[in-house]
Write a structure and sequence with these properties.
The protein is built from 7 helices and 9 strands, in the order E-H-H-E-E-E-H-E-H-E-H-E-H-E-E-H. The chain starts with a strand and ends with a helix.
Length: 213
């Protein structure tokens, strides 16, 4: 899987990509991540890529041309059947595990366009035939956090990333409650114990408990 991220702030991904499972996925060549900064594609000598919005309003809007050039570079000559172009916006399709599963199986390239300021010129989405996606009912400063969320959720569904397919939560009997040693935790004068059923060795009862918690 190749993630192509159009962003003004590629450095904001550095720490996240350099840790834990995602880092290992990159090193093992399970995924590849490439950044495209619109500032590198603008004709403005000062590398400016934002303009005042038509119709008035606060803030600035990212211009279409530099973002389109960056995204076009990412798309290249790839077969569009294997490419998913995502445009983050509040009114888009809700990103969830089903969406991640579908994308992980059907696509080889995911291009994510990260907005900033008051957003991106709406013509970008139309020209690229991008799918509007939202990660939740709230507003963020930019599209970088949503891009990390999508990258993480899709990556962990790729074969070999987690070591075992059973590690993907939706594919195993799991619980919101998990416990480890010590069996009895003494904290501020109170004892907190692991549920007895988990210590029983009765796998049928343990599975029933997991489904209910």
């Amino acid at each position: 899987m190749h993630f192509h991220i159009v962003t003004l702030f590629p450095d904001s991904f550095e720490s996240y990509l350099g840790e834990s499972i995602i880092k290992r996925a990159v090193l093992d060549k399970k995924i590849k991540v490439t950044f495209y900064n619109p500032r590198d594609f603008t004709k403005d000598k000062f590398k400016r890529v934002d303009q005042k919005p038509y119709g008035g309003g606060p803030g600035m809007v990212l211009e279409a041309e530099s973002v389109l050039r960056a995204a076009t570079k990412a798309i290249g000559r790839k077969n569009r059947r294997h490419v998913k172009v995502i445009f983050f916006e509040p009114g888009g399709t809700q990103f969830n595990t089903s969406y991640a599963d579908k994308v992980s199986k059907q696509c080889k390239h995911i291009i994510m366009i990260c907005g900033r300021y008051e957003g991106i010129d709406a013509r970008v989405k139309k020209i690229l035939r991008a799918e509007a996606v939202t990660v939740g009912p709230y507003t963020l400063t930019g599209g970088e956090l949503p891009a990390m969320l999508v990258l993480d959720c899709v990556t962990r569904r790729l074969p070999g990333v987690l070591g075992s397919d059973k590690s993907v939560e939706e594919r195993r009997v799991s619980s919101n409650e998990v416990y480890t040693r010590p069996e009895a935790l003494h904290w501020k004068g109170k004892n907190y114990r692991v549920p007895k059923v988990l210590l029983s060795g009765n796998h049928n009862e343990i599975e029933k408990w997991k489904k209910c918690h």
